[in-house]
């Protein structure tokens, strides 16, 4: 008698467990919002630091500019710092300083002259790589760039592809600046922590 009772209770417990796990699974499938996942299982095992070195070719003059002004304030043309100017760029990134050197990516984005005391730009750029293992991966840069300073630093705020969860910094040095045409070649050293 007692044995039979125990068996019944056990069966009931098993049934209830099944029923509730079914309920939980169903709920999870129907109304999925978030869950904690294992970093390693998602492929994020060991973070590494990678150094990139390339040249950024910014061409304002000529028939095929890679940097075009798209807007300015009525007072921009009387400002010594171009305050209020907004430009869109799609600049090649190459391994060497020569424009004919091997291209490894493009810098695409929007820059704005946001300083009234020096030629200081707000840089909102994506560096989209097109060569080697980083082909298709990109880094996002958001920072301040006082272009007349010898050395500028901008934060790397994230990335895609092999740069998921990336963070780091970009150091920029002007390699060539033509004061007549405003064309420039900028040397970049970028240090990125990524998986
Ligand atoms: C500056 O631009 C405004 C229009 O945006 C124009 O009316 C003005 O004449 C320009 N000034 C100079 C010095 O070019
Ligand atoms: C980069 O990836 C694109 C798209 O997958 C491909 O078409 C292109 O050939 C690749 N370039 C190099 C240099 O591997
Ligand atoms: C600077 O740009 C001007 C105008 O495009 C050009 O005539 C000149 O040759 C350039 N100077 C250098 C050193 O490239």
Summarize, please:
The protein is mainly beta and 195 residues long.
Structure description:
The chain has 195 residues and is mainly beta. It folds into two domains: 2-35; 41-194, Allene oxide cyclase-like (AOC barrel-like), CATH 2.40.480. 15% of the residues lie in helices and 44% in strands. It is built from one helix and nine strands. An eight-stranded antiparallel barrel has the order 1-3-4-5-6-7-8-9. A hairpin with an 8-residue loop joins strand 3 (86-94) and strand 4. The longest helix has 29 residues, at 2-30. The radius of gyration is 27 Å and the shape is elongated. The relative contact order is 0.15. The structure holds 2-acetamido-2-deoxy-beta-D-glucopyranose (3 copies).
Poorly predicted parts: none
* CATH homolog superfamily of the largest domain: Allene oxide cyclase-like
Number of domains: 2
Oligomer: single chain
Count up the helices.
1
User: In CATH terms, what is the architecture of the largest domain?
Assistant: Beta Barrel
- Our estimate of the beta-strand percent is 35-45%
Which strand order spans the largest sheet, edge to edge or round the barrel?
1-3-4-5-6-7-8-9
**CATH topology assignment of the largest domain:** AOC barrel-like
**Overall SS class:** mainly beta
Number of strands: 9
């Amino acid at each position: 008698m007692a044995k039979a009772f125990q068996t019944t209770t056990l069966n009931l417990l098993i049934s209830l467990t099944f029923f509730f796990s079914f309920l939980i699974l169903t709920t999870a499938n129907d109304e999925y919002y978030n869950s904690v996942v294992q970093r390693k299982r998602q492929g994020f095992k060991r973070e590494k630091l990678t150094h990139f070195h390339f040249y950024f070719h910014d061409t304002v003059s000529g028939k095929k500019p890679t940097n075009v002004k798209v807007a300015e304030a009525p007072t921009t043309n009387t400002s010594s710092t171009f305050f209020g100017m907004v430009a869109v760029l799609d600049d090649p990134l190459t391994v060497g300083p020569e424009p004919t050197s091997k291209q490894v990516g493009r810098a695409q984005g929007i820059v704005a002259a946001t300083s009234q005391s020096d030629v200081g730009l707000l840089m909102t750029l994506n560096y989209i790589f097109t060569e080697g293992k980083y082909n298709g991966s990109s880094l996002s840069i958001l920072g301040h760039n006082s272009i007349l300073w010898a050395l500028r630093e901008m934060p790397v705020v994230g990335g895609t592809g092999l740069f998921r969860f990336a963070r780091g910094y970009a150091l920029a040095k002007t390699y060539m600046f033509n004061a007549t045409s405003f064309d420039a070649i900028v040397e970049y050293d970028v240090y990125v922590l990524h998986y």
